[in-house]
Amino acid sequence: MNGAHWHLVLNHLPIIIPMVGLLIMLVGFFLESDILKRAAFGIFILGALSAIVAFSTGEGAEEVIEGIAGIDEQLIKIHEEAAEIFAILLYVLGGISLIGLWANWKKQPFSKIIAVVTIVFSLVVLFYAKQTGTTGGEIRHTEIRADGFNGTSNVNQNMEYETDGDD
Hints:
The chain has 167 residues and is mainly alpha-helical.
């Protein structure tokens, strides 16, 4: 497996894990379940750790795909910048979750506030997760770009079909 393959395998985790954490935190918050809140805090921490792994595979993926015809290096740069912001925000969410896990475990009076802060901040993180995922997908998937099929990597754009006369 090359760097691009590893990145493709791992890059979805930092996007999906916080979604799961948010859902569990919401259920825990409304059911007033400390066990579910702790589970959600743990899931957010796992999401931050998964960002470290996914982010570390980005350079290897970039090296592999830069040599592919039709790849727009500007799209790679946009994705890389979005991923940096997303990773930092996910690390902060992981840090907040560590505090929240401790506060919930120790029954601190501010633990409910930390849960609310975590919910709100996870929504911000998920916004940037969407941005990062979309910009990454746009590198190879012209159909999701804002300009549709006008990307340089659209193979069918200038393709001519030849026939052998047997029609």
